[in-house]
User: What shape does this take?
Amino acid sequence: MNVAELGGAFAAIGEQTWRGRQLAEAIYRQRIVDVEGITTLPKTLRKRLKADGWSVARPRIVQVFTSIDGTERYLIQGCADGLTVETVWMPEGDEGETGDSAETVDEGVTTSQAGRVSLRRATICVSSQVGCAVNCQFCLTAKLGLQRNLSAGEIAGQVVAVLDRQGVEVGKDRVNLVFMGMGEPFLNYDNFIRAVRLLVEEVGLSPQRMTVSTSGIVPGIDRFAEEPQEIRPKLAISLNAPNDEVRNEVMPINRKWPIEAVVDAARKVRLRSKERLTFEYVLLGGVTDQPKHAVEVARLVRRSGLPAKVNLIAWNPGPGIPYSTPSAEAVDVFRRALGAEGVPVYLRRPRGRDIYAACGQLKRTVETTDGDPR
Ligand code: SF4
Assistant: This one.
């Protein structure tokens, strides 16, 4: 609920509407999780709310996996049922934000005189659905199928839970959000965009530090293009193939909305000054990682006429998925070939591979790659 809705709830019980702002402040900024702890409300009111059954629950982190690279993968339980989703904390990001107008040139973390580590590039990877219906062939989440949509509160609540765990000071620390966890945000559009509003207006995060990635859901991109800039995150298209023929195989959703239709829709998004559209590109060994593919991708980016960059990700392995990770050399050759064509290209560093936290690996796996929860 946002400030206005909370104010309405107070009005409905005969209290002052402005109490809504106090409650929102307590939930989203002070991250208080029980009514009794909200000391900005009078004690008698707190008692009354509690007696009336008001609660300020938020999704709970029920399991934590810690990577040797500092990444943390969380199993997070929503409020409505026992289902869990995954959220990932990358203390130094994965370079995915480089070159899209939000990059930082400073260190990933710096230490203040008081000794507090201040965050510069930390990134939270957020889920929007339990499982996913899109069925990208390289992705472990696809194996779950779609179990349900997350509510707006569950999407925003994931972020608040992680901010709280990491002691993030919104306004002082810089945190990026990527809606690239489990699920396709544009197939849960209403809840996704409502969550973004809560995160911007109530939690205080900047939409210019948020990126939403879509597999190419054209009606979703059309709606997204209509959102006001004050709340609109940046857009990434999960391309992953050089042409429709390969993309049909790797991402069957392409048969419904082929590349040209997706790019057409993306052109309607009015980019901010210096903002770029990102094409995410997973390199699958022998399938999408050949130099000729790089030339095709460059042509595609140029044809789009959009200020765009390409983020390369070497495929992260997952059990039962019949692809291979390209060699470091193949990745480098691809990157250079794309760069030589004049396309801005960045390599995303794999984060948390050992705990199944990297891109395409989110399937609520309860082990790490060596078999032990860390
Ligand atoms: S890559 Fe994203 S859209 Fe595709 S199946 Fe996985 S979670 Fe869904």
User: Anything to note?
Assistant: The first strand starts at residue 60 and ends at 66.
